[in-house]
Amino acid sequence: MLRDLTPRAQELKDNLLDFMDRRIYPSEAVYEEQHNEGDRWDAPPVLNELKAEAKKRGLWNLFLPESELGAGLTNLEYAHLCEVLGRSPHLAPESCNCSAPDTGNMEVFTRYGTEAQKEKWLKPLLAGEIRSAFCMTEPDVASSDATNIQTEIRRDGDEYVVNGRKWWASGAGDKRTKIWIVMGKSDPEAPRYNQQSQILVEPNTPGITIHRFLPVMGFDDAPEGHWEVTFDDVRVPASNMLLGEGRGFEIAQGRLGPGRIHHCMRMIGMAERALELMIRRAADRTTFGTRVIDQGLIRDWIAESRIDIDQSRLLTLNAAHMMDTVGNKAARLEIAAIKVAAPNMLLRVADRAMQVHGACGLTEDTILPKLWSVGRILRFADGPDEVHKAQIARMEIGKHL
Ligand SMILES: Cc1cc2nc3c(=O)[nH]c(=O)nc-3n(C[C@H](O)[C@H](O)[C@H](O)COP(=O)(O)OP(=O)(O)OC[C@H]3O[C@@H](n4cnc5c(N)ncnc54)[C@H](O)[C@@H]3O)c2cc1C
């Protein structure tokens, strides 16, 4: 049942598979080449060509569940397509306007934005004309506990004044990014979960300084990148507040459910790609008179990888199905479980694939180091493993005591 697709979703998947074969995979090298020659913080021309083609094919905004603004797929249906997008993680999701952090931000605008906010920012985001960032994490506090966030958002007449320092804001320095969603404290005296608000800030507002990008194990992840920024008496109109003062935590919770599972869906596709590369390489090389693929140990790794991937896929599809049927809140244990399982699974599979490639597996001649780095990132991003496990344990213990 988890694997059955409606005819429409199947048609979209076939269309996407064809797009991947004909256009995405052959463009990967072109993308890298143009990227290295041009401005790294802007889109290489091939990306814009791919976006135009995806739009024409109807492979656009596939992620927005049951909404007339997107393809109208359920989370379960999108899971099957998102996995395919994950096979080329730095090109396919954005080509189809399905990449983080825009997807999470578009969901926030759709659910919580005013009509004026939607008109100004959601519309161009849905059209793929601009990009966006989400600024929550701060260098000075343990940000996996969102109640720690210190940035100040203070009302002053018709404006709010923002002061603070953020880092790891993905996409904040991308030249195409025109809006940031910033989380901060609007009332430190309010009850714990009502202290935070989320407000919209345009990156060219006076008082903002973009200090540096933070490479991830050597990768700059351009053109988005991950950035450290400060807000020094940054003034924005009061109408830029999202949902209302003190409701930032509520928005953060709503945003992270779908965002987390999208990452997991993509990581299944990344692991499938790593396994395919591992098998092809092992079949190509011979040591001590035996093909690497005929070594029992290597076959064990191949089998373990298949088991790893299928376990994670079923957990992901189950979580997506629960989100569709009982809602994101009731599915939080399943979402937390897959958020732990998928990155660790990807790390294991990518590591085996790198080992089979020999020293080549550590070079950028293959996509493997990039795939591995995504797995490593996602053991932190959208919440570290330990926080999700603590939540799962709490719920599990609650069932029995
Ligand atoms: C590539 C990348 C992109 C990112 N993009 C964004 C972005 O766009 N916007 C944004 O706001 N943030 C972003 N982040 C930040 C990310 O969400 C945070 O790093 C994450 O939430 C953890 O916060 P922290 O780094 O402050 O770790 P801390 O909160 O300091 O936690 C450190 C460690 O403490 C341990 N720990 C914490 N809580 C518990 C617990 N309950 N039980 C046991 N151990 C615990 C864990 O081992 C954890 O890893 C990104 C991070 C990376 C690496």
Question: What can you see in these coordinates?
Answer:
With 401 residues, the chain is of the alpha+beta class. It has three domains: 7-113, Butyryl-Coa Dehydrogenase, subunit A, domain 1 (Orthogonal Bundle), CATH 1.10.540; 131-242, Beta Barrel (Butyryl-CoA Dehydrogenase, subunit A, domain 2), CATH 2.40.110.10; 249-400, Butyryl-CoA Dehydrogenase, subunit A, domain 3, CATH 1.20.140. It is 50% helix and 15% strand. It has helices at 7-37, 45-57, 75-86, 92-95, 102-112, 115-126, 248-284, 296-325, 332-356, 368-377, 385-400, and strands spanning 131-135, 152-156, 159-170, 177-185, 196-201, 208-213, 226-237, 286-287, 290-291. The strands form three sheets. A four-stranded antiparallel beta sheet has the order 2-3-7-6, with no helix packed on it. A three-stranded mixed beta sheet has the order 1-4-5. Strands 8-9 form a two-stranded antiparallel ribbon. Strand 8 and strand 9 form a beta hairpin. The two termini are 33 Å apart. It binds flavin-adenine dinucleotide. Flavin-adenine dinucleotide (FAD) binds at residues 101, 134-137, 142-144, 168-170, 216, 226, 377, 380-384, 386-387, 390.
- Average pLDDT confidence is 95
What oligomerization state is this entry in?
single chain
Could you spell the SSE succession in H and E letters?
Answer: HHHHHHEEEEEEEHEEHHHH
- In CATH, the homologous superfamily of the largest domain goes by the name Butyryl-CoA Dehydrogenase, subunit A, domain 3
Which value, in Å, is the CA radius of gyration? 21 Å
Largest sheet: 4 strands, antiparallel
CATH third-tier fold name of the largest domain:
Butyryl-CoA Dehydrogenase, subunit A, domain 3
Ligands present:
flavin-adenine dinucleotide
> In angstroms, what separates the terminal alpha carbons?
33 Å
The CATH architecture name of the largest domain reads Up-down Bundle
